[in-house]
Amino acid sequence: MKFLVTGGTGFIGARVVVNLWERKIPVVVADLSLNIEWTKQIALLKYLNAPVKLSEIREQIDNTEFVHLDVADKEAVNQLFLKYHDITHVIHLAYLMSAEVEANHHRGASVNILGMANMFDMVVDHQLARLVFASSETIYGANHSAYGDENYAVKEEDFCSLDDHFFTYGVMKMLNEYTAQKYIKTKGVSIACMRPPIVYGDGRMRGSVLWACEFATNPALNKPVKLPFSKNARDCWIYVDDVAEQFVRLALKPELNHFSYNNGGHSVTAGELMQTVKNILPDARYEFDENIPRTPLVDRCDSTRLEQEIGFIPRSLEDGIRAQIEEARSRQLQVSY
Q: Per its UniProt record, what InterPro entries does this chain match (predicted)?
């Protein structure tokens, strides 16, 4: 068994790689903008005070190949699979985020549509055991009111029309899912996707939701934070390490019962989110923008299907925020050293 993780030094991808290192599963890490040292740092900080585990992680790191890859370049993608012909599983996370897509639609389509199709072709051409890719809660549209009851948790079979969408990114994810199911039906391959909500944690460096890092990391470092929406805005939040665990478990399970899965998470208002931070860090300084009543995302996602499939329930919101705060502080100390 050997994994390829594309976007493997990105915000979620790096956590997936560390998860595989912890499992001692060989992995090839591919990214267009390789951030190798940051990926290593995540693993090393985690086990700084555990010498035996730290030694094991270092061994995994030393045996890992880091590869520069543009997934939109089919020949480069194919050459990677020819070179690492023992790859059996792929977790595909190489994708341009919403702001990047809106800034350059041509490049966005190249990476997000053509790049995804290239990876689907690799599943067929190289007879891979499984490919799991990141879809998004944005496929459900920009407003929870499309589903009626505000307390309703959106399920995988729910659908929203294009008229209710806000992000080009989300519509691209819809096309990815549609195309994947074509490959499954016509080629008999194993492909699955997950639809994460807002993924929070320390170390997010790009995209339009940097506040999903800053809301807890800034207070951890004694800095103020401003969330660009009302305290009453409700969203669904999940910790980045839990998402990584979900990706790896879904990739490893021999047989799957479904194609698409909601990651789940905790549905809270921005006010409730920051109160959780303040319960941990009483001196946290934060403010909201009451001119923006809500984010263009659904508010609740049902995760029953995924929990039953892989037997994993994400940690509590408070535990996730504590983990983020501890990592942010450890990283600052490590940099200081």
A: Epimerase_deHydtase, NAD(P)-bd_dom_sf
DSSP output for 222-241: T--EEESS-TT-EEEEEEHH
Rounded to whole angstroms, the Cα distance separating 139 from 161 reads: 9
Annotate 241-299 with DSSP letters as a single string.
Answer: HHHHHHHHHHHH-SS-S-SEEE---EEEEHHHHHHHHHHH-TT--EEE-TTS---SS-S
Report the C-alpha gap between 41 and 14 in whole angstroms. 10
pTM here is: 0.96
Distances (CA, A) of 330 to 121, 154, 211: 41, 36, 20
Domain boundary assignment for the chain: 3-199+237-264+296-305
203 contacts 213 by C-beta, under 8 angstroms: yes
> How many angstroms separate the CA atoms of 108 and 306, rounded?
29
Domain 3-199+237-264+296-305 - what CATH class? alpha beta
Q: Per the structure block, which two tokens stand in for 258? A: 């479904």
